[in-house]
């Protein structure tokens, strides 16, 4: 999709990698990955290659009393999965209070204030990256974006792709509208 931030390649190692939560894990017993699990898979691969040294997972408190209930404990579960996959526990940091992208940036800033002069890798879904990047820049971060969860089709479309409607395209369109509206709202209220 054209709105998605394109995939990038890191040219040098970084100390910090910030991972935005949201949909990485599902609730229930055990470790059930969600639709955006690529948000922690890509940083895991960067860590294993020595391209990032520390992972900060932000988000997870999406409960809204009486309106929305979420018991996934996403950040904690992602941390446990990363440790099981070989990431040292001392290299994983959790910020568990953020409920939205603006709060991801403001709460992360409190934790990483001594490092703001450094460039940091920012990982979130490619569709969500424009808004996330704007929020982090507004908070004074120097970010190198590393999009995950890319939905753009890698192969050319054939004639059947153009003729036969696919329900996933409606889902992609709804996500696009949500992200574009969210970006505009964040700009208007001064979050981005």
TrEMBL record:
Biological classification of the source: Bacteria, Pseudomonadati, Bacteroidota, Cytophagia, Cytophagales
One Pfam family here: DUF218
Gene3D superfamilies: HUPs
Highest rank taxon of the organism: Bacteria
Protein source organism: Aquirufa novilacunae
Annotated protein name in UniProt: YdcF family protein
InterPro entries associated with the record: Cell_Envelope_Assoc, DUF218, Rossmann-like_a/b/a_fold
Residue intervals of the DUF218 domain: 17-182
